[in-house]
Amino acid sequence: MRVNVHFYSYLRDLTGCAQVVEELPGGSTLAELRARLDRRFAPLAGWGGATLWAVGLEYQPPAYVLREGDEVSLFPPVQGG
Amino acid sequence: MTALAHRQGLSVTRHLLITPEPIPEAALVQGRRLSRAAGAAVSFVGVVRGTEADQPIQGLAYEAFARMAEHQLHKLCDEVERRWPVESVRLVHRVGLVKAGEVSLWLEVVAPHRGEAFAACQWLIEELKRVVPIWKKPVP
To answer: Which of B17, B48, B65, B107 to mutate to test the interface with A (most CBs of A within 10 A)?
Structure first.
């Protein structure tokens, strides 16, 4: 299956791109997607800060099971205000 | 300007805006609407400091995941309305380069009494900083 991954803020700087498409086996989780992204983007693997995940417009935990076409966002802790 | 939302509910006015434009504080205050039951209007103005880690900066560059930010702000306002008898919540958050000394966030809560207005305003700011996807980077 394919999912679209969007990077924001410092994580976009680390990957050098705002969006990628990842192909994953059906039933993959966000944690498995992260492992795949870490292999693809070495600077991301070295990021020592916390990361947050959203699928669509909602936060999701690493155990979230992805579905075909999911819009996944990966970003550092938020800093509004 | 990106108008995120303007909702007139049964009795609660909700106005949420994320914008690259300077926040028009005077116009916002001028635009306040109070019912006869309103007894408190608490507002908070967030201003960009001129230093970051003791070093002078030009300002902060704000970035938002706008659709998710809108969604999360609405969820927070839903919770505010469940917790406190507010009659209006107005929030404007600026994105893009905000220079030192300029306003990055303007928030106002109107309620019958000061206790609930203060509490709702503070809770909303704290939660905004926890869940609304907006980020900032210092610009030297």
So the answer is: B65
Given a contact cutoff of 8 angstroms between Cβ atoms, the answer to whether B14 and B79 are in contact is no
A21 interfaces chain B, CB cutoff of 8 Å: no
Report chain A's mean pLDDT, rounded to a whole number.
Answer: 97
CA neighbor of A68 nearest in space, from A3, A5, A23, A13: A3
Q: What is the ipTM, given to two decimal places? A: 0.95
List domains and CATH numbers for chain A: 2-75 (3.10.20.30)
pLDDT in the model for residue B3 = 43
Q: What is the domain partition of chain B in residue ranges?
A: 2-139
Interface check for B25 against chain A (CB to CB < 8 A): the answer is no
User: Topology of B2-139 in CATH?
Assistant: Aldehyde Oxidoreductase; domain 3 (3.90.1170)
